[in-house]
Design brief:
alpha/beta; Rossmann fold; eight-stranded mixed β-sheet; 10 helices; about 20% strand
Length: about 300
Amino acid sequence: MDPELEAFIPLFPRADLTDPVTERKNFADLAAAVPAPDVTRLDIEDRTVPADPDVPVRIYRPREAQGAVVWLHGGGFVMGDLETEHPWAARMADLSGTVVISVGYRLAPEHPYPAALDDAYAVLAWTAEHAAGLGIDPERIAVGGHSAGAGLAAALALRARDRQGPPIRYQLLNQPGLDDRQETWSQRHFTDTPWMNRDKVTASWRHYLGGAPATPDAAPARAADLSGLPAAYIATAELCPNRDEDITYALRLLQAGVSVELHQWPGTFHGSQAILSAEVSQRQIAELGAVLRRALAE
C-alpha cells in the first residue's frame, strides 16, 4: 500500500453497512473533514428536476463551460447526498471546465432499485431537454461518478442506449460497483481491505436490490451486450473488491467495440482518492478532471 495512504487507515470508521442510517452520519462526518474546494471560479445553483418524485440537483458551472456531466455520488447506494458530494463535484467542475450536475438520488434501503436509477435518468433527460437554457451543447453530455455512483452511471448509459434516450458522449467510472455476484478474485479475497470490503459490498447490494433478482439495469456487469455504449474511462484501485469486475467490464467494452481508457492505480484502496494530502490521490483527482475535459472538448 502507498505509505501516505496507509497512515490514514487507523482514522477510518469500521467498514459496516448493517445500520445505514448510522453510517450516513459517519459518511457525512468524513465528507465534512475534506478540505474545502475552491469555488471562486464556479457559479453554484440548487435546482429541482421535475419527476415522480422530484429530484434535487446542484449545478456547478465554470465560466464558459459548454459540456456537462450528470454526476452521481458514491456511498454504497445507501449513503451520500448533495452535501457530501460537494467537495468532489466542485473539484470536478473546476478541473474539467465542465458543468457538473450533481444528483441527489434516493437512497436504499428505504428506496431500493430502481429508484436511484430512475432519478438519474430523469436528470439526464432533463439536462438534454434543457441544454439551451443550461448553456450547454446537448451533444456533449457525459455521465459519471464514484463507487456506487459510477455503477449507476454505467447503468444509466445502458438504459439510455436501450431506451434510445438522450445521447451520452462519455462515461467516467471511478471504481464502479458493477456486479452483485461477487465472484471475482478481488471480491472473494478482499475481506479486510480499508473502507470497502467483501461484507460491506454484500450489504450494499442487499440494500439496493431489496430482495429482488438483479437485472443488467441494476448490475451492469450482467448485461450480455455492451455494444453501442459511449466511450469510457474506468479507474480501479489495487486493494478494492471492485477491482477485477471493473477491469473485466473494461475488457468487455473493448471487445464490444467501445473505446476505453483503463487506469489501475497501484497501492490504493477504494475511496482513497479522498485523502487529498497523498500525492497519488492528487494525481487521481487531477486525472479525472483532465479526462473529462478531453472527452467533452470539441
